[in-house]
């Protein structure tokens, strides 16, 4: 169903290096990601997962083929266009990347303030509501150094989802967490994704979370294999 897609990739090839050192990293990638869907991407280290994730996230330029985000072609996009695309995407990384000198609420609020049409008061209110949704209502004014690993990752989820992005990209979101916190974090992502009807792409080696996926895809040697399950 083309009309429902958030990401549509066709015959994408990507290379690193120049001239004689140029080597191909991604080979003929074809992938569609629809709203409301959780896709998990697995695959061995060095197979190209992060490279694909950063291309989809508008964090690097597409070299060959087509990558459409909400009907906009990212190949050949200017930096300014890529910045605009990034406003529709939430990012969650292994090392939560929270700013240590900001409280949980300020970290979440900062992501909303990129959207100029929202007042400070409204951003404050929405940031608090989102922290409530990730069950951190009693940690709103805590600094990251006073939160556990799982709590920090929940702040990162709140920050990624507060602006109601169309797509959330998560690179190893549970890698630093124990089994229970890892589960809580992905269940929360799943619940919020369904509520907001956004698409989620998770790169993970963590077999314990595979069951939250609507589909699982596997990258091997720069090629995307057909669905695993
Ligand atoms: N900036 C770069 N310059 C040159 N080669 C790179 C660069 N970034 C990644 N590569 C190479 O591209 C290939 C794919 O790397 P990538 O980080 O996408 O793999 P990955 O599947 O995400 O691995 P991991 O699971 O270990 O994070 C690897 O062979 C890597 O060495």
Automatic annotation (TrEMBL):
InterPro entries: AAA+_ATPase, ABC_heterocyst_DevA, ABC_transporter-like_ATP-bd, ABC_transporter-like_CS, ABC_transpr_LolD-like, MacB-like_ATP-bd, P-loop_NTPase. Coiled coil: none annotated. Transmembrane segments: none annotated. Keywords: ATP-binding, Nucleotide-binding, Transport. GO terms for molecular function: ATP binding; ATP hydrolysis activity; transmembrane transporter activity. Residues 7-228 form the ABC transporter domain. The keyword Repeat does not apply. GO terms for cellular component: membrane protein complex; plasma membrane. It comes from Dendronalium phyllosphericum CENA369. This is DevA family ABC transporter ATP-binding protein. PANTHER family: ABC TRANSPORTER (PTHR24220:SF376), IMPORT ATP-BINDING PROTEIN (PTHR24220). It holds the Pfam family ABC_tran.
